[in-house]
Amino acid sequence: MPALSIAHESWPIAGAFTISRGSKTTAEVVVVTLAEDGHQGRGECVPYPRYHESVDGIVASLEQARSRIEAGFTHADIPRLVQPRAARNALDCALWDLEAKRAQKPVWQLALLDQPRPMVTAYTLSLDTPEAMAKAAAEAAHRPLLKLKLGGDGDAERLRLIREAVPAIRLIIDANEGWTPGELPNLLKACASARVELIEQPLPAADDEALRHISHEVAICADESAHDRENLQALVGKYDAINIKLDKTGGLTEALALAQTAKDMNFKIMVGCMLATSLAMAPAMLVAQSAYVIDLDGPLLLARDRNPGISFDGSVMYPPPPDLWG
Predict the structure, then answer these.
(1) What is the pLDDT of residue 152?
(2) Residue 38's domain spans which residues?
């Protein structure tokens, strides 16, 4: 039976990370370790206040389930063991890792997936003044895909100046629920003018019904509105794509199932992340293999990463080493 360990870790961000809801200078993560018969499996999650999660709450939920976890469990048991989805994610990924170590086979084989290959991730620019974001974009012009955090006054100007600074770079944006239905038409036009390829969550999840009634040239992607398969049908007619994050789905198991169901329903797939280390990116890379957009740049935004971690060559990320995960 597995022995459970739970650790809260704080990882410094390179500078600050700013979105429409605020700024932070550290990535606060919870790491679950399952040890059994000389093998260890690990999973990492990010408690996210937007979903009423906290480090203390995640740790408490896992501690409350300790006896049932250490009595033995399966992936299907996890939703009944802990409620916060971030806690489910860390536990699910730790179990996958432990199973791989015990079987001496990589997770991609256990999950009957194709062998992962290197992939290009988006690189995120924090919300700032139009001039500062244009300067940051120019400095990141060696990267093929930039993700812009928007959601404040002056977004149209930000898009104009950034496109002038990087005329040939692919752009996607994330408003983090920061726009209103009234300003949406003009901002959608600004996105089209700037040749933006995808817009994440322009409206608050509670207000996204307005998306049914507005035409748009740029693909609109659900993030805060998309969690797991249960609410997928409600997104039809509002969104063209969904952003799959393991902390929202509650782990790799549901993320893989969600990706397949979403594809069957003709949604484009984006695979994203919370701000975390390579340990959190590793399982997400398995879901990302067939994604339309990949946004797994968490380690690139940290002052330091785990060792060993995922190797990056610019924006190209390579499959994780077995000593990290999987």
Answers:
(1) 78
(2) 3-104
